[in-house]
Amino acid sequence: MADNHFEPKIVAFLCNWCTYTGADLAGTSRIQYPPNVRIIRLMCSGSVDPTYVLKPLLDGADGVLIGGCHPGDCHYQSGNYKARRRIIALKEILKNAGLEEDRVWLRWISASEGGRFAETVTQMVEFLKEKGPNPMREKWAV
Amino acid sequence: MKSQPRIGVYICHCGVNIAATVDVEQVAKFAATLPDVVVARDYLYMCSDPGQALIQQDIVERGLNRVVVASCSPRMHEPTFRAAAQQAGLNPYLVEMANIREQCSWVHGEREHATAKAKALVASVVAKTARLEPLEEREVGVTPGTVVIGGGIAGMVAALDIADTGFPVYLVEKGDHLGGRVADLNRTFPTLEPVAELLEPVIGRVQDHPNISIYLDAQVVGVEGYVGNFEVEVTSRRVGGERGGAEGRGDPASTPSTSSSSTLSVGSIIVATGYDVFDARRKPELGYGQYPNVITSLEMEQRLLDEDLTVDGRLPKSVAFIQCVGSRDVQLGNPYCSRVCCMYTAKQSRLVRELLPETDVTVFYMDVRTFGKGAEEFYDEARAKGVRYRRGNVSEIIRRGSRVALLGEDTLLGQPFDFEADLVVLAVGMEARSDVGDVSTLLKLPRSSDGFFLELHPKLRPVDTAVDGVFLAGCCQGPKDISDTISQAKAAASSALIPLIRGTVPVESATALVDEEWCAGCGMCVEVCPFGAPALDPLWGFSRINAVLCKGCGSCASACPSKAIRLQHFTSEQILAQVDALIG
């Protein structure tokens, strides 16, 4: 099992309108969560290119979180549905390529769900601690 | 041609908000070592005038062509720093922010980890900033006019201010008359003015106003568009005030008795949908609906208007008021104070004493909250007129002959009481409307935990919402009295007028661009765009994106199989550089 000192690195792509604002709300509400997550702001989860997920995984990030608006709430009408289809397809490709698809989380978190954002990060950190480091960290050691 | 980046990095202390948790000096030292960084500083408040001047001075003196501010959320101060950079001659899109307050210092307590994370966030944003390109600021025209949802006092007052400025207003009321809940009241507090004298002139002005179109029995069923250019779909069973109705694209006035649908084109929207009165049946222990002796405060308003306080044909010898029914009640899910019940109870109890000087009047309260101008004085007068205030929670009301008995605990004496009364008035509070969710979904408006609509900032932006161009007025935002409602309605009107008077609103500059050399003309972008922005050139076959229609979501860029489309300001190159800085 993973050792206790392992601190997973998570890259998060958050849509500007819902999840990024939800993460801001976690801040203004002072809801504490583990510092393992590094947020990159995008305008829409629908703009998450497969390479945005693949690159961190291949470079050794332990998890990738994509946060978008709840179904029906997309600021651009349907970007989150596009993200959902794309991430489902991408996870199939990850499996076939021998990468661990459960390191990629797609979550709907609204602008008013600061608590849910903090919980999601906390759960993801716990999950990844349990799972252990991304083997791609050691890719040159094979 | 892209110039060699010269980046200035500015780490904000935000007083102690950041500096207490993040070692800002260390972050600034670290930032100075990053590629393309020419200068890195930390300062107490970057958003202050001297903070902004510091950036502007460096732009001029150090020849900076890129700026990174590590401070609060870009949703807070991005416009501030963009404007500051612009004043110093820098394109505002060459400024980027690292969010080390909301997403770092405020959510992580441990200094070492928070500092490490702040460094990573700064490095990531610096990597993006080095790859930023200047963008052109663009504006589009505004459709003059405002839709006001709700024909209560808030909606009417807001509508009048906008209409008086000369813009068309479409006032959409769900019920069959104007006036809302205020129309159910007898007299105001603390001035004891008859409400009808106050309300009827307002209704009259609204009805007669040439710039106001009134839609009664009407509902907003669809909202499209963005600040400056909304399309609001309204269905209505009948229409009044049709004099000003010509601006609407539908033709609502022609068939007054049948259902009609109109699409209203406006620049801004005011939500003034009001509240629901707490249903006293949800506290069955108080016997409302079971005993004729127990009535609600709204029924009391009507009785005071009719000057009829009899129960079963007899005048009451003892009248009891119970405050906070449905408010400050965690078990019911309403932990908040409804703000008006203390004062209207003082008003009603005093009016009862004036009507029936021989009758005992007792108010059972948790705390008396008489804020507002003249309110405390009014409460003192009520007590001087013989209204007795007793601090206590009534836990149950039972029938005793033709009277009722209030059982509970006197919380000052610490003793149980058994108090008989002929008439009991339940001071019911306010709740978010049962249909608040429908409006919230239509307009994508967030709500606070109490169920009411959430203002953008509790102090600085109390009538704005998360949706640009949509403003709040009255009790849909939270319980308030008539004075506060009107203040807020006038504030909402003035905010809603800003885009109308200005005549233009800025539109997204960070639009998607097609590289014609790489485009294969597959049409995938045309398929995924919800706004119809891309179209295939009929002659050459490649895609072109209409920058006015493009909202900058980036769906086309991520869908393009040839990677011929890039979303400006969020290009793959910029995003992957951020990833590299975080993980590499």
Task: Describe the structure in your own words.
The complex is a heterodimer of chains A (142) and B (584). With 142 residues, chain A is α/β, with parallel strands linked by helices. Chain A contains four helices and four strands; from the N terminus they run βαβαβαβα. Chain A has helices at 19-28, 50-58, 79-96, 114-131, and strands at 10-15, 37-42, 63-68, 104-108. Chain A has a four-stranded parallel sheet, with helices on both faces. In chain A, α3 links the parallel β3 (63-68) and β4. The longest helix of chain A has 18 residues, at 79-96. The radius of gyration of chain A is 15 Å and the shape is globular. The two termini of chain A are 20 Å apart. In chain B, the strands form seven sheets. In chain B, strands 10-9-8-7-6-11-21 form a seven-stranded mixed sheet. In chain B, strands 13-19-14-15-16-17-18 form a seven-stranded mixed sheet. In chain B, strands 2-1-3-4 form a four-stranded parallel sheet, sandwiched between helices. Chain B is built from 15 helices and 26 strands. In chain B, β3, α3 and β4 form a beta-alpha-beta unit. Chain B is 30% helix and 26% strand. Chain B starts with 6 loop residues before the first strand and ends with a helix. Chain B is of the alpha/beta class and 584 residues long.
